[in-house]
Amino acid sequence: MIAFENVSKSWGSNHVLKSLNFDVQPGEKVSIIGPSGSGKTTILRILMTLESPSEGLVSVDGDVLWKVAAGEKPKETRQLRQTRRKIGMVFQQFNLFPHMTALENVVEAPIHVLGMDKGEARERAVDLLNLVGLSKHMNHTPPQLSGGQQQRVAIARALAMRPKVMLFDEPTSALDPELIGEVLNVIRNLAQSTDMTMLMVTHEMRFAEEISDRVVMFDHGRAVESGPPEQIFKNPLEERTKTFLRAVLQH
Ligand SMILES: Nc1ncnc2c1ncn2[C@@H]1O[C@H](COP(=O)(O)OP(=O)(O)OP(=O)(O)O)[C@@H](O)[C@H]1O
């Protein structure tokens, strides 16, 4: 469903991704772990077309999103916009429209981007806000909601576009500790009850262990180890994975 083939990304002399080969199968739930600055967020931003690779090929659902030869300037592929719509993303910061209610935030894109009928979009938004446990808060604006509630609106908003792929970029890192569980519960339910492909960058190791089909350990722009959670968390093969997990699991 997602494929990175020999993808590199540099900012000046900072080589953030180095000939990365990485893929995610349809329906697979994959978590990316690794130290700060290892390139995890950059992968998601390239998939969202918020960044372009310096070199390499990126495809989603069989469509080429980026194809950049060495030394060439990245340019948008013909199907980029179409393909981009297959992907939903949940950011660290919730990025909601502050003056709109939860319901308006969720119906906005389906109506204006997909051209969905207003009644249908509204019905679907109500269902999604119920799904994320916000039936009582549909008419509240973001300032009237807690961080956990805002992030759940952001998840409903991404789902409203009927994506085939959901990307999560450290979705709980901006939340107070007591609000993390409610957001993880929503993501856990999605992982267990849908066949959507899910790719998540997370610092929540226990959560990654629980919901992922596969965990990928990143370091210095490379996938150093990839395997089922039992392998990565209980019996890692690579020294780098062992030292990383020892450091983060101590806290
Ligand atoms: N727009 C940009 N311009 C210049 N450098 C950037 C830009 N975006 C990211 N970087 C650099 O790329 C490197 C990797 O960043 P990235 O956010 O992908 O790491 P990460 O693994 O997600 O880290 P974290 O866990 O801290 O979020 C960092 O050195 C960062 O400073």
Automatic annotation (TrEMBL):
It holds the Pfam family ABC_tran. The keyword Membrane applies. It is found in: Cell membrane. GO terms for molecular function: ATP binding. It is a peripheral membrane protein. InterPro entries: AAA+_ATPase, ABC_ATPase_HisP-typ, ABC_transporter-like_ATP-bd, ABC_transporter-like_CS, Ectoine_EhuA, MetN_ABC_transporter-like, P-loop_NTPase. SMART domains: AAA. CDD domains: ABC_HisP_GlnQ (cd03262). The keyword Transferase does not apply. Residues 2-245 form the ABC transporter domain. Keywords: Amino-acid transport, ATP-binding, Cell membrane, Membrane, Nucleotide-binding, Transport. It comes from the Bacteria. Belongs to the ABC transporter superfamily. PANTHER family: AMINO ACID IMPORT ATP-BINDING PROTEIN, GLUTAMATE_ASPARTATE IMPORT ATP-BINDING PROTEIN GLTL. This is Ectoine/hydroxyectoine ABC transporter ATP-binding protein EhuA. It comes from Sinomonas terrae.
